[in-house]
């Protein structure tokens, strides 16, 4: 995997996004885009109305295109500018919060989605641990992440991590998530238009001992990261 890291603190990253969004606006996505992602989350036997959290929701386009009948929708973003726009677009209370410290109770979410954002987080260990903590046992996590190093050269965002589908799958598996679907966005025309050369990983949060162990390992990794 290859990383670009121009900023290191959450405060500096937040300021960067606020300034960028004030000057350029947030990145839009379409209803077709949301439908394509949501279709990947269809599953027989799922609760009738699932609690869905969009982590780093940007201007709220995905949430706006997610049907309220099927999903109770929640969103957070590090940038107050993006969160305010997402609130105007969706009418939902959008949290100004980092992925590294999600303001949700343990096991309170059925589906976490994180689209074109995980690669930009300051602390990916902490963010992944938060995904595992807030998602109920048996729930879903879906991420869309880049695999082409071209993103490092062309994307203005200050932090970027790129990896092959195999590398990303291994990264999440090692942290206790079960990857059950890996799709190249170039194979889905609707997604390719918005996010070329990315991978969608659909994952399940385990139940019982495996989940608890993953959670404990993540906490230990976070502790060790802080004490270095
Ligand atoms: C490329 S945008 C993607 C936004 C949205 N998910 C979409 O698909 O349009 C990346 C988003 O990540 C947010 N972000 C960056 N670092 C974050 C962090 N540590 N915690 C939460 N959000 C973060 C930014 O503010 C920005 O809105």
One letter per element, helices H and strands E, the order comes to EHHEHEHEEHEHEHEHEH
Fold-level CATH name = Rossmann fold
Write down the domain tally: 1
Bound molecules: S-adenosylmethionine
CATH structural architecture: 3-Layer(aba) Sandwich
Commentary on this structure:
The chain is of the alpha/beta class and 228 residues long. The chain has one domain: Vaccinia Virus protein VP39 (Rossmann fold, 3-Layer(aba) Sandwich), CATH 3.40.50.150. It is 40% helix and 26% strand. The protein contains 9 helices and 9 strands. It has helices at 10-24, 31-39, 61-64, 80-90, 124-134, 150-154, 165-174, 189-194, 208-227; strands at residues 2-5, 50-55, 71-77, 94-96, 109-115, 135-146, 159-162, 177-184, 198-205. The strands form 2 sheets. The protein has a 7-stranded mixed sheet with strand order 4-3-2-5-6-9-8, sandwiched between helices. A two-stranded antiparallel sheet has the order 1-7. β3, α4 (80-90) and β4 (94-96) form a beta-alpha-beta unit. Bound molecules: S-adenosylmethionine.
């Amino acid at each position: 995997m290859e990383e670009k890291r121009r900023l290191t603190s959450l405060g500096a990253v937040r300021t960067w996004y606020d300034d960028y969004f004030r000057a350029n606006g947030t990145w839009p996505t379409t209803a077709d885009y949301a439908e394509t992602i949501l279709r990947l989350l269809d599953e027989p036997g799922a609760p009738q109305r699932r609690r869905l959290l969009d982590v780093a929701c940007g201007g709220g386009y995905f949430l706006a295109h997610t049907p309220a009948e099927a999903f109770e929708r929640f969103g957070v973003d590090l940038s107050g500018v993006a969160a305010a726009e997402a609130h105007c677009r969706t009418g939902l209370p959008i949290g100004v919060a980092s992925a590294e410290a999600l303001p949700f109770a343990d096991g309170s979410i059925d589906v976490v989605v994180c689209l074109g954002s995980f690669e930009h987080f300051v602390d990916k260990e902490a963010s992944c641990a938060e995904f595992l903590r807030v998602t109920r046992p048996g729930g879903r996590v879906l991420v869309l992440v880049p695999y082409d190093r071209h993103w490092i050269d062309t994307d203005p965002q200050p932090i970027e991590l790129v990896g092959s589908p195999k590398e990303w799958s291994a990264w999440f598996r090692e942290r206790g998530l079960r990857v059950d679907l890996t799709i190249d966005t170039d194979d889905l025309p609707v997604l390719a238009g918005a996010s070329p050369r990315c991978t969608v990983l659909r994952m399940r949060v385990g139940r019982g001992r495996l989940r608890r162990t993953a959670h404990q390992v993540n906490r230990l990794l976070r502790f060790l990261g802080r004490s270095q």
